[in-house]
Design brief:
The protein has helices at about 1-25, 30-55, 65-75; strands at about 100, 110-115, 115-120, 125-130. The protein is α+β, with helices and mostly antiparallel strands.
């Protein structure tokens, strides 16, 4: 019975600590979660924290406000791209969508798809933010 309580407590602390670390961007991913879990719950906490940290650490950081403002200020293209798939943060854009690099920040690019401005990571084409 005591083992179940310890595992449950370690899991709860691991989830809370993993979220806090992921938000501050100081320690993320499986390693950060394992360290946090070990501090909070010992060996069991390290295992739970490692899994939690791996999940939380994959969250996508939003682009800087300067990038968002730049994309919002760009004129709408004369020809719109429409795709069947729903555009979702964290998922890559289809290869048929043309992305335009952000001049002052090559970490980001943008596109206008399905009536929405979308900011992506150009190398992976992964959607970072959808502007409404």
């Amino acid at each position: 019975m005591n083992t179940k309580v310890i595992v449950s407590a370690a899991a709860a602390f691991g989830l809370l600590a993993g979220s806090a670390f992921a938000q501050s961007s100081t320690v993320t991913g499986a390693a950060g979660g394992a360290v946090t879990g070990a501090v909070v719950g010992g060996p069991v906490g390290a295992a739970v924290g490692g899994v939690t940290g791996a999940i939380v650490g994959t969250a996508i950081d939003p682009p800087p406000q300067k990038v968002v403002t730049y994309v919002e200020e760009q004129p709408m293209p004369s020809r719109e791209t429409v795709v069947q798939d729903r555009i979702v943060v964290g998922q890559p854009l289809p290869e048929t969508v043309v992305v335009t690099p952000v001049p002052d920040n090559p970490t980001y690019a943008y596109a206008y798809v399905n009536h929405e401005r979308v900011i992506v990571q150009p190398k992976t084409r992964k959607v970072v933010k959808i502007l409404e």
